[in-house]
Amino acid sequence: MAADDWPQFRGDPRLTGVARSAPPARLDVLWTHDAGEAVASSAAIVNGVVYVGRQSGALLALDLASGARKWSYAAGAEIGESSPAVSGGVVYVGDVNGVVHAVSAADGAKLWTYKTAAEVRASPVVSAGKVLIGSYDQHLYALDAKTGRLAWKVETQGQVHATAAVADGIAYVTGCDQILRGVRVATGKVALEVSSGAYTGASPALSGTRAWYGTFDNQVLSVDLAARKVTWRYEHPQRKFPFYSSAALADGLVVLGGRDKLVHALEATTGKERWTFATQARVDSSPAVAAGRVYIGSSDGRLYVLDLKTGAKLFAFEAGAAITASPAIAGGRVVFGADDGRIYGLGAKQ
Fold this sequence. Notes:
The protein contains no helices and 32 strands. The chain is mostly beta strands. Strand 6 and strand 7 form a beta hairpin. It is globular.
């Protein structure tokens, strides 16, 4: 695995959304790939290959340099928001029939599948030899990464839409039952429960002993995991809309999109609004951050590049169709899909 790879949703197990290297300040379209169906899945990038799902039920592997298709794996059902995770030469992803797939990264060959009892829209995270993934059957699953056998599952009281964030052997997952849970990866034992007070579709981002995420009750929360309590709640003073975008953490800021058409940047310690940036439609895409720049899509059909400190617009790329998937950054490229089925690779032309 290359040093700057983006191997899973949000880039790393803590779901921070921070890239390990920066794309060039000027972005050109290096390639486009017509996936044929809407792309809500966010890409993973490992060893010069892009892995991404499409709604027609295919997992695609594309060459990062050219966008050329290397292989396509038929999942048999729509791949929605579930975004691939790549570990140990294997690509993992879920589909809306509730099946978790393990596929060879080299050639797209099926390795194993595991069937849950309802659709899977969460993204997998690989930790300690286990694939952690939620299902709409109200369970968080841990599957053996090599065999697909069930290691454990934890029942919640609502759909598990969000992706688990992992730190120090504990998987933290927000729930549609309004509970943030910490589950020990080794045993499946619940180590923490904190009430969010609202239905939550966004995934938590972790730093130190804190977690940050938005809710469908129009708030962004900061949770002290050690003290097991909410430390602040942010709500825009005028615009009352849900947060579906998962936050990025960088330079003391929590950055995320809102269904109020704004990108919000909040101070991580206090929840004080640092800046907002207005797009022309809801922002369900989750931001990626690299070298002081925020990369985020909007349903207005644009990918925006914003200054992390000020929120000033540095660049906007017009895709022409809603962008709900989140950008992935690796190898000097920014990769994302759009609702018209096009996948884009942006970077600097030689």
